[in-house]
């Protein structure tokens, strides 16, 4: 949610700043801007609304700049208008901000009394004026920055330049991610590693209450008391091609196809001949996890859907009881915790504000332990959690999550086996089922041309229903979410048995009903539910490996490969991802950057 990128260099960085910012576009694309200082110590600012490409036209109005900050916005306070676009400026100060300043009204009132005129509707603008106010008082940027953030309530990652100190960038962070990357004669601030990968693999994370001063030569990290901190420099193994399209038209398409390799790598890394390899969740965890009697899953969005699948897996194979809650609810609820309950949060980004506050809450409650299943190694969630399992799916750029979902499912399947072992789950059979993913996934990708054809039948629809039962119900939820997110078609998911309790009223000959129907012990029941749709002339799209007759033109059967029930959720979501993708293409929406959404939701 909002992306920040800044460079302090010896060379001109005008174009580099723009191209790096584009790598952060998935974090927000309501408006964007750049502020940079040229050799004559003058600060130059360009801004534009809409996607970052709109900024390109203004790029040529910038002279060569050597120190600069940039921002791509996901609007929270104030519409996506030019006046609300970052960087915000006050005197010699320009700032970019990610997060939310909860007490901005109080600060506004204070600033107005000090004769500052505020021109935007944002919470962020106050930061610029506050720093300017403090800088004018002490003439010391470090002190001015610390003094200013001391009065901020909420979350922030801030990048600041001051035209009086033309070769420096200052940064501060609390509750919003910010990294400092170290290059050759150049140093960077960024919301994540993606914009700097062409230049360096080395970075450090700015923790809560930490500050940084960067020049092209040096990075100094300090705390509120101006004490210099020694930070661990991390070397990422993420490569630039992982954040590039590599011939695909969209990141979503690329990421759907990456699933094969990611799942295969996870299998090679964690799955032995007849059992899982020992302690894959960290040293001593097999023993720890074998004692778990209850699991509380907490997550948001797609990650929440993954937790619903895990709940089903665990409850099917053990006597462990599980709850799965969306984080925005969990943090406001009274939580009853029985002995030996494990808290598990799931997050692709590791920066989702609701999940972070749920994890913070869980740590204060009486859980046996907290486990995070996450895709980003150096994230707030991995830092806060006692146990961490990294999905290692590589950066996910498309806002609509695909490869993160299936790698979360794979991780959770491993987790389910480990916690269910003592309950006599058939590990050998489960392992052999997992090993089939690789082969089956190829047959699923071969369905793409057929799915592309079917997608035209959704293009002009306003509403759709998705049905599933048992382990397929969370897949119906996730498939409906995918369609909503990127094609803007309303999609509701139901347990197929719930159809007759309300949603059947919506079914008429125009209503597409998508059903996930693996050939298992529930199949007959789902077929009767579908008969209820067909009797009302609803149009059904059935993803199934069961041999069912195609009674009429209103029944569309997408023949799925045979697949063990255990791995159905991992494999059945893939054609649904492709379906949403092709519907969105036909509707000409911005597939990777759907309207109003952000990849990483860092505000509550
Ligand atoms: C946003 C994204 C979703 C994601 C959800 C949770 O809404 O658009 O794709 O599922 O946040 O994010 P997390 O990073 O915690 O998995």
CATH third-level topology of the largest domain: Glutamine Phosphoribosylpyrophosphate, subunit 1, domain 1
Largest beta-sheet characterization: 8 strands, antiparallel
Structural class: alpha/beta
Distance linking N and C termini: 11 Å
The first-level CATH class name of the largest domain: Alpha Beta
**Chain-averaged pLDDT:** 95
Number of folding domains? 3
How many helices does DSSP assign? Answer: 18
- In what range is the share of β-strand residues? 15-25%
- What Rg do the Cα atoms give? 25 Å
Q: Which descriptor suits the 3D outline?
A: globular
CATH superfamily of the largest domain: Aminohydrolase, N-terminal nucleophile (Ntn) domain
pLDDT < 50 stretches: none
Strand order of the largest sheet: 3-2-4-1-10-9-11-15
Bound molecules: 6-O-phosphono-alpha-D-glucopyranose
Judging by the overall fold, what is the CATH architecture of the largest domain?
4-Layer Sandwich
Layout of helices and strands, plus pairs?
Blueprint: E1 3-9, H1 14-22, E2 31-38, E3 43-49, H2 53-59, E4 65-73, E5 88-90, E6 93-101, H3 104-113, H4 125-138, H5 141-149, E7 154-162, E8 169-174, E9 179-182, E10 186-190, E11 202-205, E12 210-214, E13 219-222, E14 228-229, E15 234-235, H6 251-270, H7 285-290, E16 294-299, H8 301-317, E17 321-326, H9 327-330, E18 341-347, H10 353-364, E19 369-374, H11 380-384, E20 387-390, H12 403-420, H13 427-434, H14 437-445, H15 448-455, E21 463-468, H16 473-487, E22 490-495, E23 512-517, H17 523-535, E24 539-544, E25 555-559, H18 568-587
Parallel strand pairs: 16-17, 16-18, 18-19, 19-20, 21-22, 21-23, 23-24, 24-25
Antiparallel strand pairs: 1-4, 1-10, 2-3, 2-4, 5-6, 6-7, 7-8, 8-12, 9-10, 9-11, 11-15, 12-13, 13-14
Helix pairs in contact: 1-2, 4-5, 6-12, 6-14, 8-12, 8-16, 12-18, 14-18, 15-18, 16-18
The structure holds 6-O-phosphono-alpha-D-glucopyranose (G6P).
Residues 300-303, 347-349, 352, 355, 399, 401, 597, 599-601 line the site of 6-O-phosphono-alpha-D-glucopyranose.
């Amino acid at each position: 949610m909002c992306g920040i990128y800044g460079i302090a260099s010896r060379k001109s960085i005008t174009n580099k700043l723009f191209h790096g910012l584009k790598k952060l576009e998935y974090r927000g694309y309501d408006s964007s801007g750049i502020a940079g200082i040229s050799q004559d110590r003058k600060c130059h600012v360009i801004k534009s609304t809409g996607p970052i490409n709109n900024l390109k036209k203004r790029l040529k109005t910038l002279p060569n700049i050597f120190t600069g900050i940039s921002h791509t916005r996901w609007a929270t306070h104030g519409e996506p208008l030019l006046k609300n676009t970052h960087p915000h400026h006050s005197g010699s100060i320009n700032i970019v901000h990610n997060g939310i300043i909860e007490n901005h009204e109080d600060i506004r009132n204070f600033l107005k009394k000090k004769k500052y005129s505020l021109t935007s509707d944002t919470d962020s603008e106050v930061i610029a004026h506050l720093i300017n106010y403090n800088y004018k008082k002490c003439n010391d940027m470090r002190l001015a920055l610390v003094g200013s953030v001391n009065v901020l309530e909420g979350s922030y990652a801030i990048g600041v330049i001051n035209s009086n100190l033309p070769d420096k960038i200052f940064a501060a962070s609390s509750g919003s991610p910010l990294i400092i990357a170290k290059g050759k004669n150049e140093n960077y601030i960024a919301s994540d590693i993606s914009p700097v990968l062409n230049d360096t693999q080395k970075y450090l994370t700015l923790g809560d209450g930490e500050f940084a001063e960067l020049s092209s030569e040096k990075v100094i990290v300090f705390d509120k008391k101006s004490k210099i901190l020694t930070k661990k420099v991390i070397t990422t193994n993420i490569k630039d091609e992982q954040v590039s399209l590599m011939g695909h038209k969209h990141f979503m398409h690329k990421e759907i196809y990456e699933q094969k390799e990611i799942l295969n790598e996870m299998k090679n890394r964690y799955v032995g001949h007849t059992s899982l390899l020992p302690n894959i969740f960290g040293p001593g965890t097999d023993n720890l996890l074998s004692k778990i009697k209850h699991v509380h899953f907490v997550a948001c969005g797609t990650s929440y859907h993954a937790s619903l699948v895990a709940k089903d897996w665990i409850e099917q194979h053990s006597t462990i009881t599980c709850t799965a809650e969306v984080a925005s609810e969990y943090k406001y609820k009274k939580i009853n915790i029985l002995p030996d309950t494990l808290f598990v949060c799931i997050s692709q980004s590791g920066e989702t504000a609701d999940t972070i506050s749920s994890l913070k809450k869980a740590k204060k409650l009486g859980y046996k332990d907290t486990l995070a299943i996450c895709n980003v190694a150096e994230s707030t969630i991995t830092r806060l959690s006692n146990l961490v399992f990294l999905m290692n799916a590589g950066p996910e750029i498309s806002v609509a999550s695909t490869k993160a979902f299936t790698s979360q499912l794979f991780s959770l399947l491993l987790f389910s086996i480990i916690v269910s072992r003592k309950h006599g789950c058939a590990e050998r059979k489960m392992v052999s089922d997992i090993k089939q993913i690789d082969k089956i996934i190829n047959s699923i990708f071969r369905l793409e041309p057929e799915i592309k054809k079917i997608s035209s039948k959704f293009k002009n629809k306003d509403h759709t229903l998705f049905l599933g039962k048992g382990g397929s119900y969370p897949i119906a939820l996730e498939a409906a979410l995918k369609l909503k997110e990127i094609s803007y078609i309303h999609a509701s998911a139901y347990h197929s048995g719930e159809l007759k309790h309300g949603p059947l009223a919506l079914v008429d000959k125009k209503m597409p009903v998508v059903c996930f129907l693996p050939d298992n012990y529930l199949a007959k029941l789902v077929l009767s539910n579908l008969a209820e749709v067909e009797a009302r002339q609803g149009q059904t799209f059935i993803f199934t490996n069961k041999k069912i007759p195609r009674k009429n033109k209103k029944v569309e059967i997408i023949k799925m490969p045979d697949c063990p029930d255990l791995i159905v959720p991992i494999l059945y979501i893939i054609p649904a991802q492709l379906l949403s993708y092709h519907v969105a293409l036909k509707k000409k929406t911005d597939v990777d950057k759907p309207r109003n959404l952000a990849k990483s939701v860092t505000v509550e």
